[in-house]
Specification:
This protein has 252 residues and is of the alpha/beta class. It has helices at residues 9-31, 45-53, 81-93, 107-118, 158-166, 185-189, 204-212, 244-249, and strands spanning 2-6, 34-38, 62-66, 68-70, 97-99, 125-128, 151-155, 179-183, 193-198, 230-235. The chain has one domain (2-249): Rossmann fold, CATH 3.40.50.1360. It is built from eight helices and ten strands.
């Protein structure tokens, strides 16, 4: 794993987008297609805006997989994570092959169908974020670091749910679903490459917990330190609490 730190989230987003575009184009060049995973979160907005502006990506050869979704939330809800991907990635690029999670479907059938599609071939690159509680996808602490199941039903903790209210997706805590479907930690780690986009001061405590302490289910994204091709993109605000020795250890 390596860190790359930028002055602000716009610079972070542009650099991460260039990296992502290279990973996509490399996979298409080698195999004729690229299979990728994308997160749906406010932290990804600058990155996705920059990525979708890059010319020359053969998006028709890209297959997209969904990282997580709230259970019981219809796809047209303003907070739907599937809707986020539609608006900020799919419609802007013309991706034709995508697998979005519908939170209104029967959970067991949804997990089986999504997992079967996801594991049918290797994933070239995963774009992820890190939650304010250190979560990776919706794997809140203590995260399951063991299961090999591609998708899980999870119960969201209060910190995670309150983050969604602060970001403006819901008006109050009672509106935020308590359960979600999430790609498992082990499945995310099976991606050939992982690009984590983590801007803003509100992520500084989580970044410190995940990269200064032990690798632990209580700091789920700490597991990224075990991946040989994980790059974590930070800005000066999200990196503010990291010890300089930690930054230098993982610097690119």
């Amino acid at each position: 794993m390596i860190f790359r730190v930028f002055a602000n989230k716009l610079g972070l987003g542009e650099a991460a987008a260039e990296h992502a575009a290279g990973a996509i184009q490399s996979a298409i060049g080698q195999r004729g297609c690229a299979r990728m995973i994308a997160a749906s979160a406010a932290s990804q907005l600058e990155f996705l805006a920059a990525l979708t502006r890059i010319r020359g990506i053969a998006w028709k050869n890209v297959e997209l997989f969904h990282l997580d979704e709230y259970l019981g939330l219809p796809p047209n809800h303003p907070a739907s994570l599937a809707r986020f991907l539609q608006e900020h990635l799919i419609t802007r690029t013309g991706i034709r092959k995508y697998h979005l999670l519908d939170g209104t479907q029967e959970p067991d059938k949804l997990i089986h169908a999504a997992g079967t599609s996801l594991t049918s071939a290797p994933i070239d690159v995963a774009f992820v974020g890190i939650g304010e509680n250190g979560h990776l996808a919706f794997n809140d602490p203590p995260a399951d670091f063991v299961t090999e199941e591609p998708y899980l039903l999870v119960k969201l903790d209060e910190t995670s749910r309150r983050q969604q209210v602060r970001e403006g997706w819901f008006q109050n805590l009672s509106e935020v679903p308590e359960r979600a479907i999430s790609m498992s930690v082990r499945q995310i780690l099976k991606s050939s490459e992982i690009i984590a986009i983590v801007p803003d001061s509100r992520k500084a405590e989580a970044v410190k917990a995940c990269f200064s302490g032990e690798i632990s289910p209580m700091a789920p994204a700490s597991i990224l330190r075990t991946h040989p091709r994980a790059t974590v993109y930070l800005d000066t605000q999200s990196a503010a609490l990291l010890d300089p020795l930690v930054l230098s250890k993982y610097a690119s």
